[in-house]
Write a structure and sequence with these properties.
It is a single chain. By secondary structure, this protein is α+β, with helices and mostly antiparallel strands. The chain contains six helices and five strands; from the N terminus they run H-H-H-H-E-E-E-E-H-E-H. The chain has a three-stranded mixed beta sheet with strand order 4-3-5, with no helix packed on it. Helix 3 crosses helix 4. The longest helix is centred in the last third of the chain and has 18 residues. The chain starts with a helix and ends with a helix. The relative contact order is 0.12. It binds zinc ion (2 copies).
């Protein structure tokens, strides 16, 4: 698969061997399709990879441009595949339970690109990429809040 070849190429050029720990981290991140914190990754990868090694693995993978680090003002970082290894997307961040879900916004990407052109025309700033994340309550947290206020 193309993406896997590209991941392998980036690991090689960063002089990172394919280790059990790295493979498990990447497999999980590819499968789960949402940005994960290191403790969340640890739950999956298991005790054979100590938390300290996991932080190291993740930071090496960021340096190799395989993962990208995201911060949502939660006080810790989350990690997902680097943007050009994944589909371009945005995030829905629940500030009540802390869940973060990926969201593609195909309907407005064309308008965003037009906006990027307008920004370049008016300010000279050339945006290479953009981030647009939404903060609020997820469906189950919204339901819980509604139930509490109803009584
Ligand atoms: Zn929630
Ligand atoms: Zn976008």
């Amino acid at each position: 698969m193309d993406r896997d070849n590209e991941i392998e190429r980036r690991l090689k050029s960063a002089n990172l061997r394919t280790t059990e720990g790295r493979t498990r981290v990447l497999d999980h991140i590819k499968r789960i399709g949402q940005p994960l914190s290191v403790p969340e990754l640890h739950e999956f990868v298991g005790v054979q990879v100590p938390l300290s090694s996991l932080y190291r693995i993740v930071s090496d993978l960021v340096d190799a441009a395989v993962l990208r680090k995201l911060e949502f003002a939660e006080g810790f970082a989350r990690y997902e595949l680097d943007e050009d290894l994944a589909e371009h997307h945005h995030h829905l961040v629940c500030t009540a339970c802390g869940s973060v879900v990926d969201l593609a916004l195909d309907a407005i990407e064309a308008r965003l690109h037009q906006t990027v052109d307008d920004i370049a025309a008016t300010t000279g700033f050339r945006a290479r990429t953009h981030r647009l994340d939404f903060f609020g309550t997820c469906a189950s947290c919204a339901t819980a809040v509604a139930a509490t206020t109803a009584t």
